[in-house]
Each structure stands twice: as C-alpha cells, then as structure tokens.
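Case study B.
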Amino acid sequence: MKIKRDAAGADTRTDHELVYAARDGETAAFDALFYKYRDGIFRLGLAITKDPSSAEEIVVDTFARAHRALARLEPDSSLRPWLYRVAVNLSYNRRPRKGVVLSSLDDAVDEALANEDGSPSYQAEQAELRRLVLGAVEELGPKHRLVVVLHYLNGLNLAEIAEVMDCPVGTVKSRLHYALRRLRTHLAAHPELGIEPRRPLIATPLRARKPVTAPVPIEGE
Amino acid sequence: MKLIWGGCESREAAYLAGADRLGARDRAALEAHAMTCVECADALRNGRPVDAALRSAFAPLRERRTIIAPGRVRLAVAPRSLPVSPWLRVPRIFSRLIEASVMVSVTLFAVGSSLESSTVQAPPMTPTHSVVQDYFRAQPPIDELNYFRWLRLVKTDVSPTVSDSVHLPAGGRFDGDQVEIVKERTAPF
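Model:
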C-alpha cells in the first residue's frame, strides 16, 4: 500500500485509516499516530503532573494502551479525544515519585522561554506576566484547570473537551466560563494586565441599552 | 438577567472560545442580549483580555516537545515472556541441579578441611629425642681438635667442678701452663 505523505514527510492519512492500517500490522501507521500526538500528550501530562519524566511515561503508557486497544478502537475522525482521555486518567492516577520536587507550570514555561529573542527587560516583563497568569490557573480547582489546560494549551475545542472529560458540552462551557471569571477576579488585582475587576451584580443598571461590546463580524457576511 | 437569558454563561464561554465558534444566529442573539444585559456585556468585554492573557501565557508551553521514540511503546507492549513448554525446562533444571551439587560438595570440602586442620595438634617446638645424637655426644672424638671441642661441649652445666678456660695451642705449644683438666668422665646426660 502506498503511503500518502506531505511535504514534511508526515503521513497524511486520517486517524481512522491509520488505526485500521495499524490493526492490520502496519508498524508505520502506528508510528505515524505516535508522532502525531506524542507532543500534545506530553504537554498535557506535564501540565497535570509537573514532572517531565512522569509526562514521558504517560506518553508511553497512553500509546501502549492504544496499541492494546487497536482491535476495538473505532475513531470517527480523530483519535485525539480518546488518547487525551486516557492520558488525563493516567496523569491523575499517577502518584508523585518520592524525592522529586515538582516544578510549577511556570517553571516549564521558563524552560521553553530559554531561547526566546528580545531584550532582557522585555523577557523579564513577559515572564512576570506569565507567572501571574499561570499562578492564577494553578489556583483553580482540578476540573476547571483541566478545561483551561485542554483548551488553551492543547487547543481542543469544547466538544473534544467534553469527550475527554466525559461530560456534556454545556458543562464544559459552564466550567470554562467559571474558570475565566475566577481568573478575571484574580488577575484584576494586577493592573499591568489591563483587566478590569468584575462589577458587583447590585450595581448593574437594568436600563443599559447602548451596546457595550464591539460587534464581531459574522462569518459568511 | 440569567432568568431572562438562559445559558448566558455557556454562550459567553463559547463566544470567547475561538476554536468552537457559535453559529451566526446564536452569536447575533448573544450580542443583542449583551446590549441589554450589563453583566453579560461586561463579561464579554473583559473576557477578551483574560482570554488573550491565557493564550499568551500558554504559548511558550505549546512549544515543548519530547523526543520519545515509538520503540519505547513497542517495548512496553511486548510480551514479557514467551510461553515455554515444560519439557524444554528439563535440561535447564538438570543443569541447575548439577551446579547446586557441585557448589555443595565444594563447600563441604572447604568446611571439612578447615575443621580437620584445626583439630590436628601443632608439632612440639622441642626437637625430638635422638638416640644416635646421644651416642655420638657420649663418645669422645678421635682427633685432637674435635676432642677439645667435645670437651667444651660436655663441660657445660653438667660439670660439677669449675675449671679454667681452655687455652688453645698456638704455634704447636700451649700459650701458658698446661692445665690438667680435672673433670670426671661422665656422660653428659
């Protein structure tokens, strides 16, 4: 069978095709799935466990489970929600290793910023802002933090997050809304971020008629 | 406000979540609602900076990559041990038995020899009694030189009398008056 590849040499087959090819014993198909999703799962594991070694083990364990489950996997279009769900469960079930000092999410970002261009003062300012935001994210509850991480770090849409967390999409939207509201409350204390504090409900005038948001252009118009 | 507009929160979240855009009708309805609802308008207006701050904060982390190879997964899913027929284990068990018996025998030999050597008495420090040596000590030598030596030998503690030291001859003559040795010819022992 001829394998379709893009300019970068990556396999362009869909997850559905790759799963069926891997089921038939094609090692390259499983490797293509691995290379496609390993970084995302690694970042997810890193965000939850805050330990790079544990995150790598989570990647291996996740794909090992996928390999064992190949016979019963039936991905519609993307295998990503299924893999992320397994990775989330493995991450939360993993006990922290003894003697390992867990770094914060902010430390992981600092490592990624090591090669960033810019003046030292600019880098320091950006790092401080990131530290504030990620510190506020870490203060969220586990469910709300997971929604934020899956959406803003892994780029999953709300439907995929719902599939990963095994809950309705409305619940994901509600959790995301709550998380953003909590973050806004936290971050409003830092004026350098330009976020206004929430107005109390009692002060909301019912007669506000004029538009306060800029209309967003609707697609297709 | 929430009683009037059901599902405000979820629509706002979806509105802000760019990856999952609302439909055109829902978005227009939400914007129309935000014109009348200050809380929703405030949430939409100030949700954007939070959204932007989160995207900016997570951007470097999205560049983190790993270099794990798929070979590690293959190692993880590989069968730990192939099923082996019990008959194939017989030679291995036999060889293990031989190894064990050799080890036991060597150990017993080492322990036994060490015990035996510890029970053997050490040889006496005094020399053994020699009858031949006693005989030759009792007999005076024939030649002159050895005779005088023999005299010195037998003159030790067994001698009851004290005699002068022996003057050896020099130049064929004694260097002093010849002293007669008054000593009983007794056996040294």
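Chain B has seven helices and two strands. The remaining cases will be described in the next quarterly update.
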